[in-house]
Amino acid sequence: MYSPQLPLARSRVLSPSESEVSQADPHPVGGVGGLEASLLSLIHHHHQRSVLLRDRTEKARRDAIRSAGAVSDLLVEAVNGGVQEAFLNQKRIELEIRASAATVSCFMKQTDHWLASTHALNSAIKEIGDFENWMKTMDFECKSINAAIRNIHQP
Question: Does this model's pTM top 0.85?
Answer without folding.
Answer: no
